[in-house]
Task: structure prediction
Amino acid sequence: MTAADEILDIVDENDEVVGQAPRGEATARGLRHRCVFIEARDAEGRLFVHRRTATKLVFPSRYDMFVGGVVGAGESYDEAALREAEEELGVLGLPRPEPLFKFLYADGEHTWWSYVYQVRCELPVDPQAEEVAWHTFLTDAELAERLGDWEWVPDGLETYHRLRQFRADRSMADKKAL
Result:
């Protein structure tokens, strides 16, 4: 079975399942489905950044600061987050990614419910060759320097900005609670 044949749950604007379709059809027809985005940091707090392979169905050869992917039919977001993180990082025994927030991504061509997670990966990574053409770990400052220079996946870039806002809002709420 190829990635295009993988069966996905098709969901509505409330993230309720309304049907199923093969991934290739969901992508071609712009059917709303579910995805997970996992921010993976190493023991030093650096962010895993990679360039997708040229064979990816969506956004080939672009850079991404998240690992992740589609949620399979009948699979939970949490199950998909751990599976995708372990697959793309090429590790086993990763801690369960911590869920942060969910949002609806839509760019006119693609639309999916996106659940954002974070995980600390202290294991040596061996990224999945079918998914990852190149990788490194960057500090937040190094990533910021590359935001305008590299061609990023648009959903990952939007997720990155939403995650920064989420953390800023949470930090503000924590300060008010004191």
User: Anything to note?
Assistant: The beta strands are 7-11, 17-22, 33-41, 47-52, 63-64, 67-70, 98-106, 111-120, 132-138. The chain has four helices and nine strands. The longest strand covers residues 111-120.
